[in-house]
Amino acid sequence: MTKRTIQPGVHCPLVTPFKADSGDIDYDAFKRQILRLTRARVGLVLQGTNGEACHMTFDERVEAVRFAREVLDSNGFSDTPLLVGTGCGSARETIALTNAAAAVGADAAIVIHPGYFAFAMGKDRAAIKAFFLEVFEGSSIPVMIYNFPGAASGIDLDSDLLSDLADHPNCFGAKLTCAGIAKGERLATYTKSKAYRARKSGEFLVLPGFSDCLFSAMVAGAHGCITGTGNVFPKLIVAFYDAIVDFLTAPTPEKFARVTELQAVVSHADWTIVKVGISGTKYALDKIEAGLGGAVRSPLAPASEGVRALVDQDLAKAFELELAL
User: Fold this and answer.
1) Using one digit for the tens of pLDDT, what is the confidence trace for 181-222?
2) Among 149, 220, 294, 302, which is least packed, fewest CB within 10 Å?
3) Over the stretch 140-167, which tens digit does the pLDDT of each residue have?
4) Is 50 helix (H, G, I), strand (E, B) or coil?
5) How many Cα neighbours within 13 Å face the side chain of 296?
């Protein structure tokens, strides 16, 4: 079997569509979104923050991975890798879920540090490092670090700690949902150094967790992004990424103008998606295709009238470009 690896580019943490009546996963909508993003050349990240992984049971999370792998394989995308969020409340359960996901088709895992005990050990660098090293050692697939202080009770990994963790042979990248462009630059510089390359083969991916900073992040050495906004506007963000690569490869004033044109639209759309949250993202998806986003699970609330109005008004330009591409 060909080894599937996560590549530079645009990746998206898929929402998990739930049925409004039963609360169960809507696998038909899930399939449609998997294929929609894959056809748009967007890398798939299952059970990230947008996927409401914390609202799913262990068995649901494993079954969703198995289903996604089956959808890809049966629709001509057997070479498409699956990056799966497997962070849980302890290293033990994280390892168990990672290996269970690997057994049904996950090619790599993305892991956030548990935040429940941040009040007790959030500044304990040794404990934080030990958690990730335990996961790296116990995982049967490569692991990406997910640094998102907002979802980890404020735990924020700095570039020194990330660089230390990057040395482990089973760690292949970091998602930085901390808007740390300089942090990403320091990490990218370290992992592209001759000394690092001499110790460890393969490219270490540095991916910001937003698409609004994609241009500046790639100038600073990032390899793309993992963006929840990609759920709604996959073709737009891929076009933005392609324009950046084209400009960085052979800069011209015309290419820079194209990048900045797309930057303005993506930056506005990204901020709106951040403001409307997961329920607003699902509402936006339902505007594209009925039922595509689905319902949220409690304690998240459905999109309010104000959230729906914000989506309708503030994302009009992005919807226009997405449909035109």
Assistant:
1) 999 999 999 999 999 998 888 899 999 999 999 999 999 999
2) 302
3) 999 999 999 999 999 999 999 999 999 9
4) coil
5) 19
In this prediction the pTM is 0.96
Per the domain annotation, does 221 fall within a domain? yes
Q: Which residues are annotated as catalytic?
A: 175
Neighbour-count burial for 214-233, b at 16+ CB within 10 Å, e otherwise: bbbbbebbbbbbbbbbbbbb
Tokens 């044109």 appear where? Answer: 261
CB 82 within 8 A of CB 69: yes
Quote the CA–CA distance of 159 and 308 in Å, as a whole number: 38
Q: How many C-beta atoms surround the C-beta of residue 77 within 10 A?
A: 16
Rounded Cα–Cα distance for residues 258 and 254 (Å): 6
Domain holding 180, by residue range, is: 9-231
In a domain, 214, yes or no: yes
Token output for 52: 């409401």
Q: Does residue 321 sit within a domain?
A: no
Q: How many domains does the chain have?
A: 1
- How far is 87 from 116, CA to CA, in rounded Å? 12
Give per-residue pLDDT as tens, 267-280: 999 999 999 999 99
Q: Is residue 258 part of a domain?
A: no
- Report the residue count for the chain: 325
The CATH number for 50's domain is: 3.20.20.70
